[in-house]
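Exercise (ungraded).
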Amino acid sequence: MSKSATQRSERAFERGEAQEAILDAAEIAFAASGFHGATTRAIAEGAGANAALIHYYFGSKEALFEAVIARRSGAINQERRDRLAALHKAGAVTLEAVIDALLRPTVTLGHDSARGGAHFTRLLSHVASGTDERSVRITSTYYDAIARVFIDELMATAPGLDRAAAVRGYLNAVAIGISLMAPTGRRQMLSDGVLREEDVDAMLDAAVRFIAVGIRALARPSG
Amino acid sequence: MSKSATQRSERAFERGEAQEAILDAAEIAFAASGFHGATTRAIAEGAGANAALIHYYFGSKEALFEAVIARRSGAINQERRDRLAALHKAGAVTLEAVIDALLRPTVTLGHDSARGGAHFTRLLSHVASGTDERSVRITSTYYDAIARVFIDELMATAPGLDRAAAVRGYLNAVAIGISLMAPTGRRQMLSDGVLREEDVDAMLDAAVRFIAVGIRALARPSG
DNA sequence: GTCTATAGTTCGATAGAC
DNA sequence: GTCTATCGAACTATAGAC
């Protein structure tokens, strides 16, 4: 990490490169240590930038944190909307396909070490399951709209699913999605190595099937 | 809070009362702000105790944090084992009953404001879904043994469920349990007030049914 | 066992030169 | 736009009186 920071500081930043480097380093630091555990000094060092630049560009540590979330959340939710639109265009809107459209963007991002997505999903899992005021506010800001899109889609796709049941189904799906997008090695450990965190498609397929039958059961309480 | 702390400091602590007061205050502070966000000074103030006592009794902030988790985890997992034992004694071991035995102790604790359990479950949801080294270590220490108990129980109860599928089912159940034990108001908000966080039995029943059919689907991939 | 006082760091943020 | 230098506050932890 120290070597990478040095390399980065050796070449001068060009148009907007400093901001991106700070966001990258902040993403890693916040994911590893949380909001209070990460320090602006360590973030600056990780970015190969001067600590004062954080306040110059973002104003405060708090604003930097939210900027880290905002940067990726837009793309994630756009991919979800695109996948839903593609399903409609192809006339292939099944319950399983809708759930897949919800989970796949984050779960695959969480296993994309090349673009650093794994750091972001670790951070997002913290925020999405956090009960502190900051986490609740940020989750609401960036994920309420997409939640309502998918809740409506679930109601339209699963016969007999009322709104309350759709909300339950959505929140259950998200809870499982969170556990999949930020691997801790626990899955592999408890299965004595049989389940591999790297096998994203197998994890997703099993999760989608699990959630789909669960939602159908919520739609038919007597069944 | 300040008033409560004052009241507490006005009456002298008796046998072990200071330790318990510190643990209570630490539970609240760690739940609200996380490990780094909570300060030993604020915890001492909340307990109506001197800040130096934290180190006298627990040695370090780190050790205090683990003591907070340890204090309640034993009781939670004992209740789970007791519930399983009661099911066996009554010959009523169904998949639904096993899942209920897993989730009910934490979910009910999370809505027990009288004994302060809600603070603990907020903290536990952070730790259980955290990917930092401390969270992973603590989760492993206090919840690996009970995980294996329930994974074995699922395999014995759901016909055709192999170990890998049982691990998937267990982790999905726990993920949903985490989302239920630390309410954020999101469930109520997304359902426009129809779903009430206080209705623990309804939430638990719906979750148990959801998880049970999901696990049965994992047992019969072709079904 | 409980307190005061403080050591020794480290924090977020900013002022001001360039 | 990027840097150095630093402020004032807050932190964990400990020493030592009682």
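Further reading is listed at the end of the chapter. For now, observe: Residues 39-41, 51-52, 54-55, 60-61 of chain B lie near DNA strand D (CB under 10 Å from a C1'). Confidence is low (pLDDT under 50) at residues 1-11 of chain B.
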